[in-house]
Amino acid sequence: MSTWFMFMFQESNSYYADNLISFHNMVMMIIIMISTLTVYIIMDLFLNKFSNLFLLKNHNIEIIWTVIPIIILLIICFPSLKILYLIDEIVNPFFSVKSIGHQWYW
C-alpha cells in the first residue's frame, strides 16, 4: 500500500515485481557507490597538493578505467537479461487488468 512520503516501491504481489524491485535496488547501490567514489576522488584532488603534474601516460590506469566500467556493465547486464526473458514468458495468468488514463487539461 502506498503511503505519504514513501520513497521505496510498494509491496509486490508477483514474482516478477519482486525481481524488478531487487534489480532496482542492486542498480541503485551500484550508482550510489560510483557517485560516492567520484565525489571522494574529486575532493581528494582539490584538497591534496601532492598531484603529479607531469604524468603524460600510464597504461595501467588506462586499462583499469576501461576494464572496471565493462565489469560494472556486465554485472548490470546479466540480471537485467534474466528478468527480461523471465517477464516475457506468460504462464497462465489468473486475471488481467486493463487501466485507462485520462489527462486533465486545466
From TrEMBL:
Signal peptide residue numbers: none
Organism: Apis cerana (Indian honeybee)
Name of the protein described by the UniProt record: Cytochrome c oxidase subunit 2
InterPro entries: CcO_II, CcO_II-like_C, Cyt_c_oxidase_su2_TM_dom, Cyt_c_oxidase_su2_TM_sf
Pfam family, one: COX2_TM
Coiled-coil residue windows: none
Primary localization class, coarse: mitochondrion
Recorded family membership: Belongs to the cytochrome c oxidase subunit 2 family.
GO molecular-function terms, A-Z: copper ion binding; cytochrome-c oxidase activity
Keyword tags: Copper, Membrane, Mitochondrion, Mitochondrion inner membrane, Transmembrane, Transmembrane helix
Cell compartments where the protein resides: Mitochondrion inner membrane
A GO term from the CC aspect: mitochondrial inner membrane
Catalytic activity: 4 Fe(II)-[cytochrome c] + O2 + 8 H(+)(in) = 4 Fe(III)-[cytochrome c] + 2 H2O + 4 H(+)(out)
Membrane topology, from the record: Multi-pass membrane protein
Location of the Cytochrome oxidase subunit II transmembrane region profile domain: 1-91
